[in-house]
Write a structure and sequence with these properties.
Helices cover 52% and strands 14% of the residues. It has 114 residues and is α+β, with helices and mostly antiparallel strands. A hairpin with a 5-residue loop joins β2 (67-73) and β3 (79-85).
Length: 114
C-alpha cells in the first residue's frame, strides 16, 4: 500500500462511505478489513475508512438489501464475514456513481473559474 506519510488522509464527505464500499465490492466478496485496505490502496492513502464508519456502513447496506454477508475464512485462517453486492446494490451503485460524477463536474466547473 503506497501511503503518503507526509499528510493525513482526506476527511470522507458525508455519504461517500456507502459508495466506496459498494464500488469496492464489484469484483467479488470481501471482508471488512479487505474493503478498508482496498480503498486505502486504490487512493494511495488519500482516503481511509475508519473501522466504526465502515462497519456501520456495512450493517446499513445489508439492512437495505444492497449487500449480503456470510461467514467464511480469511487469508490468515480467521473467521470473517464476507460481503457481496446484490442486484439492488449494483443498481444503487450505478445511480450513486452517476450522481457523484455529476456533482464532481459541477464543483470542478466552479473551481476552474477561480
Amino acid at each position: 500500500m503506497a501511503v503518503n506519510s507526509q499528510t493525513p488522509p482526506l476527511p470522507l464527505l458525508q455519504g461517500t462511505v456507502d459508495l466506496l464500499v459498494l464500488r469496492t465490492l464489484v469484483p467479488g466478496a470481501m471482508h471488512g478489513y479487505g474493503i478498508a485496505t482496498a480503498v486505502a490502496e486504490r487512493t494511495a492513502g488519500e482516503l481511509a475508512i475508519e473501522d466504526a464508519a465502515l462497519y456501520q456502513a456495512l450493517h446499513r447496506l445489508e439492512r437495505q438489501g444492497l449487500i449480503e454477508a456470510e461467514w467464511g475464512e480469511s487469508e490468515n485462517n480467521r473467521r470473517a464475514r464476507f460481503y457481496t453486492l446484490t442486484a439492488a446494490g449494483r443498481k444503487r451503485l450505478a445511480k450513486e456513481t452517476a450522481v457523484w460524477k455529476r456533482y464532481s463536474r459541477a464543483v470542478d466547473a466552479v473551481l476552474q473559474g477561480v
